[in-house]
Amino acid sequence: MDIAIRGIPDTATNWELTKLLATVIHSDEFHPTHDVERPERQLLLNFQVRVNINEKLGGYRNDTTGTLTLPTYEIGKKFLDWVDERPIRMPVEDGKPHKLRFRPRGHPYEDLALTLQRTPYVDPDREAEHAEILRKLDHRLRVDTVQFGVYYHTQYRPTGPLPSRGFSVEWEHDYVTDAQSAWLTFEYDHKLIRIRAGNETRDNQAFDINLNFSSINKIGGGYDGKPYLCFDTLTPPSFESINLYNSTGQKSKERVGYIHDAHKDRAPFACQMRLLLYNEADSLDKFRYLCKNAGLGSQFRELKSVSLAIEATSQLKFFDERSLYKIRKTIKEFEWPVAFQLEALLYNGHLNTRQLEEIIPRVRYRLKAKSPTLEERPAPGRESPLDCFERVAKEFIYDASKLASGHFPCGHVTFTPTRQLLEGPYATQSNRIIRQYVGYEHNFLRVDFRDEDRLQYRWDRMVDGATFVRQRVGTVLKEGFALGGKHFEFLAYSSSALREHAVWFICPFYHPRLGLVNGDRIRHDIGDFRGKTIMTQPSKLAARIGQAFTATDPSVRILRDQWEEIPDIGMTPHIHTDGAGTISQSLADEIWEELCKDRRDHGSTTIKPSAFQIRFLGYKGVVAVDKELDKHPDGIRMRLRESMNKFSVDTQDAADIEIARAFDKPNASYLNRALVMVLEDKDVSLPVFQRLQETALADTHTIDDSLELFRNVLMTHTLGNGYRLSSLLTNIESLGFDIKPRARMPGIDTPFLQQLRQVAKIDVLREVKHQARIPIPGSFKLVGVPDEGPTYRGLEGYEDIFCLPPYHIAACVHEYGKEPVWLEGQCTISRSPICHAGDVQTVFAMKPPEGQLCAFSHLVNVVVLPTQGPRSLASCLGGGDLDGDQYDVIVDNELLPPTKHKPADYPPGVTFTLLDEDGEPRECEVEDICDFIVEYINSDVLGLLSDRLLIIAATQTLIRCKPDWHAAEVVDPRHTDYYRSDKSHVLSDSLSLTLRCFVERALDVYADPDGKSPQIDKVFRRYAEELNYVCLLEAEVVVGTILAKCTQRRWRKDRMWKMRTHASQLVRDVKRHLFPLPPGEKGKKGEKEPIPIPPSDIKAGLKRAWDAWDYSLRNSKTFGAQSFGLIALDVVFDCLQRLKIDVAFKKV
Asked: What does pTM read for this prediction?
């Protein structure tokens, strides 16, 4: 209801009037809802106040009238009755309060009424503060010249004050001549500084240069004939082309990679910006004022003295055409691993061409001397790149790392709108194709496409980004790129990689047996697609080719007469066995044996998987153990279903079974925002979620109370696995120790353990706050497999076989060291992502009946779905199938939804088919696959859709303020939270004193370490140098998380995965040096048994690990020593256990 207001003081603002009326509208008389249990959560009635501006006075005052809009007619009527009896008066400074007069005006716009009904009330003080900031920032500064270049050091000082850097201008444009102009403005709502270059009154086109607030490291301002601003940014600015007056008469924007043809070649290297402002005396003062109000005051510094001034020159030309040609020609002369690193120094902005030319002769010398080197950035201003190179070359100790089985070192290239960034090589899991070319892996590159901040492409809705993606990404895909003297061309992608906008590229090479190997050759050899419909459908063809590029581990070969294809159960489109097959128990044992051969425990501390996700020839999906296959009269060991067959492969006598994943343990189930939203819609009460959240928070906040609680948090949230932190804490606890002193045992807490707990706590709390990731006790995420009972029904000997009824499931959870447990009773089952109420279904979990043959009685850590009924249960859960999908099985009775919804239909979409000029289907070329990738990236809005669904669920309409769960993550660790201990350690701490008794007993001759072992020093230095490459807190690496803020969770997860892979490889390398283990051998029954290790070898390993533990204590202040000690301590416990020395604490 709209209500007219008269008698408003002419100086009153919207916010002042809103605050006054809120005292009435938010009183108990009008309050529509109350939360008795949590009064702080009670909802405030939303309304809107609009004061009419007095145009005659230039908008500085109002005309004493306005409008109040209330969400409903009933509330409006009640308000009018209330003010008739109790008039509202508005105070006026130095005057008599004004009596406000109200009268009904009519109905507001429907959209406004709906917004008020479904959006929260926002404090007017916050809105007033926001409006005031916008008012203060409503100024612009004229820019005379825009310059792009790089900073460089004019001289180096090992000590003392650092000299000011210089600025090499690589490209510039003057906006004073030719009636052009450029203006700098602050856009607070978009959090950026924008420079608009172009004459809006004369030109049809202009350009925007956008600097995000978050990318600005420092800003320096001074005078050099004119006022200048130097921006030191973490990422380059973004560029937009503006069509000022297009055919529709509206302005439009398009993302571009450069703002001038001459700028194009410099943009990848000259990423820093310098501006010359219009020569006004107060230009810098105005800019300082704008920075302060925009929240950038701490970043700006005026360079008043000569020693601080940043001298600019356009004479150096580090990145002109001649300099780039010369340095690239030189780099081509090196072998690929060295060339890649030299290119990385150039493209990543670590060195300019002149600096690179200085170190290349030293690189050649070191290569001739066969002295490998490590990339390290010099301390800024303290040493030159050449001095840094010589220092590292002398100090670095090279030790070839032995990668885990199925991994290879792979270079990564990231294309951003302006740059080409190089990383690695990283340890990368191989695939079927890579394994075919052993020794030629360096010809394959992983390439991804990102925005300048390394996040996925995102732009304002007014910007046409799709055209830019087609130009930037499409050109790289279709034309390839040159690097280190090689030319790389597009090869293929896997489905999981495409979600990260990543693909494989290949440099064509000659193989001694196969001849020329290039992208066309590999794609042709993968499978036979000729003459099939799939050849006219780029998306499906690329997906089928991508099967061969799925990251897998090799396992065993199987003969052609040992496997067969069988029909599916069910009718299209809802096949019960979609993507699922079976294998014999003996074959599963052989596969598991092969996967465990490089593990230190040879699989002895895990549960044998009952299911594997595989790739085999043209088949993909999951195979579960079927013990009946061991009895097959024809020796069949694997059955694959028709739905698993994606393409034909030339018949082979034998083929490898490739393992994408082995399901050897159950995963915990968690709430998430989408699941909470759907369960709320299905009438699950809010206190249930609050209880689970409070339990999770309580568990996290008690992490400092004991080792057991610390270990439980790590295990629940799968943290610290790379360093076996949970196992290590268990061993320490077995000695009788705890975090705090207990009884007669001292506590073992250290600053590093405190930091580990703090990092783990921050990680868990962040996930709860931003993702609603809350553990559900007793519930699990399990891979789905079908009930094979109907396959045997009707066959001789299987007359009494049990089959799961519709909407019944079976799941046996078996964790190492515990007894298997069958889930029973009513429960919910779902699959991510969830976007419909019917995606969560209620089912009944049951055990195998006694006295009846059951095809799933032996399966563990899987959820068995029924294969009876008109529709498969998997298809009811967000359109799932059984080719590797995992399902959340929640057995918490309070989370059982009272309201049931029918499952949604997920019909297959219409696949795009290529047509020729006559409208007939045509076969696609590799360029068509490239076009599909471009369109996929343009349409990849899953994350954006997720946010929109959640905002709509919370408010039902969009407003300026975002909900608090969408607020920026503020989890930066502060140096004041942590400290280094100055205490000297020489095995004098309580843990070492206790362990020394057991070590002395194990070793024939014992002597305290002296901390001078050259072997241990070499192992540690190598470990610390590699760990330093990660550039994180040491505790972050151990826990396995990244605390830095990031607006895209998927990107951080990808970086965390790379960090964990790198850290795990380091841990394996250290353990290999301290206590190398032989591979396992097959036992009498096909079980994996470790080869007996001579006690003398175990004792030697124990001695080295004990020396390493002592070394870590002596060097505890050195980066890497604390985590190095954890690795050594784990090996100490491992050796003691192998020597059968019981270290368990005995209570007296």
From this structure: 0.85
Distance CA 1142, CA 492 (A): 53
Tokens of 237: 């600015």
Give the DSSP letter string of 359-376: HHHHHHHHHHTT------
Return the pLDDT at 641: 95
- The torsion angle over the Cα atoms of residues 701, 703, 705 and 708, rounded to 10 degrees, is 140
Pairing, β 886-890 against β 238-243? unpaired
Distance CA 957, CA 939 (A): 23
At 278, give phi and psi (nearest 5°). Answer: -60, 135
Q: What is the pLDDT of residue 186?
A: 95
Give the start-end residues of each E strand in 127-233: 140-152, 166-174, 182-187, 192-197, 205-212, 216-223, 227-233
**Token pair 């004990």 in the structure block, residue:** 1106
**Residue 951: CB atoms within 10 Å:** 17
Q: How far apart are CA 621 and CA 583, in angstroms?
A: 12
Given a cut of 70, the residues of the chain with pLDDT beneath it are 31-43, 58-59, 178-179, 246-251, 369-381, 396-400, 651, 743-745, 941-987, 1031, 1047, 1078-1091, 1145-1148
Please measure the distance between the N-terminal and C-terminal CA atoms of the chain and give it in whole angstroms.
79
Nearest C-alpha neighbor of 302 from the set 325, 331, 282? 282
Task: Give, to the nearest 10 degrees, the angle between helix 725-734 and helix 707-716.
Answer: 160
To 10 degrees, what angle do helices 283-294 and 124-136 make?
Answer: 160
Which two structure tokens, joined as six digits, stand for 875? 């298809």
Contact, 573 vs 1069, CB < 8 A?
no
> Following DSSP, what letter does each residue of 546-566 receive, concatenated?
HGGGS--EEEEEEEGGGEEEE
Amino acid at 742: R
DSSP state, residue 741: -
Tokens of 353: 């061409």
- Burial class of residue 613 (count of CB atoms within 10 Å of its CB; 0-12, 13-18, 19+): buried
The tally of CA atoms less than 13 A away on the side-chain side of residue 611 is 32
| Residue 297 DSSP symbol | T
Q: Are 1066 and 746 in contact (CB under 8 A)?
A: no
Q: Exposed/middle/buried for 159, CB within 10 Å: 0-12, 13-18, 19+?
A: exposed
Cβ count near 1006 (within 10 Å):
12
* Cα–Cα distance measured from residue 374 to residue 551, given in angstroms and rounded to the nearest whole number: 28
What pLDDT score does 1025 carry?
A: 82
Q: Phi-psi bin for 579: left (phi > 0), alpha (psi -120 to 50), beta?
A: left
Other Cβ atoms less than 10 A from the Cβ of 727: the count is 17
Strands 140-152 and 563-566, bridge-based pairing: unpaired
Structure tokens at 878: 């967000």
Nearest to 710 by CA among 779, 761, 762, 778: 761
Which DSSP string do the residues of 628-676 spell out, in sequence order?
GGGG-TT---EEEEGGGB-SB----SEEEEEEEEE--SPEEEEE-HHHH
DSSP string, 695-730: HHHHHHHTTTT-HHHHHHHHHHTT-SGGGTHHHHHH
Euclidean distance between CA atoms 666 and 684, whole angstroms: 26
Q: Tokens at residue 825, please?
A: 């009773």
Task: Specify the pLDDT at position 943.
Answer: 46
* Burial grade of 389 (CB within 10 A; 0-12, 13-18, 19 or more): buried
- DSSP-assigned letter for residue 626: -
Question: Residue 731: what residue type?
Answer: N
Collapse the DSSP code of 486 into the 3-class scheme (helix H, G, I; strand E, B; otherwise coil) and give the result.
strand
The confidence score (pLDDT) of residue 532 equals 82
| Phi/psi at 889 (5° precision) | -105, 110
Calpha distance 809→859 (Å, rounded): 12
SS3 content of the chain, % helix, strand, coil (to 5): 35, 25, 40
